[in-house]
Design a protein that fits this description.
By secondary structure, this protein is an alpha+beta fold. The protein has three helices and six strands, in the order ααββαββββ. The termini are far apart.
């Protein structure tokens, strides 16, 4: 089995570089991309590449962490769009050839912590 971790590293590098040919090369033809928070699903490499290519704004990303096991990788990325900052957690599934066959993305919204636990936590 080819190393899916290296494929995911290439996936994120190609996305940041806007190298859509290299980006497409990391994906299976029938890749499935899901966003559970909006209940959207994009099926197929062509549509998923187009989704990313047409995404608005001057966004940039930095990989903060990758955790990998055979056939599965999880990434945490930091994304900026102008002055806005956000984080995403992505779950990747691979095929036997080391390409990405499924991606599930979670884009959590930041929020203020509830009152009453200031004595236990520090803000960063």
């Amino acid at each position: 089995m080819t190393d899916l971790r290296k494929t995911v590293e290439r996936f994120w590098a190609a996305a940041e570089a806007r190298d859509w040919t290299a980006f497409a090369g990391t994906l299976t033809e029938d890749v499935v991309y899901e966003l559970p928070q909006t209940r959207e699903r994009i099926s197929g490499r062509e549509r998923y590449v187009r989704f990313n290519r047409e995404y608005p704004g001057d966004w940039h990303l930095r990989v903060e962490r990758l955790v990998a096991e055979p056939g599965q990788v999880v990434s945490r990325i930091h994304v900026t769009v102008g002055v806005e900052e956000m984080y995403a957690v992505s779950f990747f599934t691979g095929d036997g050839e080391g390409r990405i066959s499924a991606i599930t993305d979670f884009w959590p919204e930041p929020y203020e912590p509830p009152a009453g636990r200031e004595h236990l936590a520090e803000r960063y």
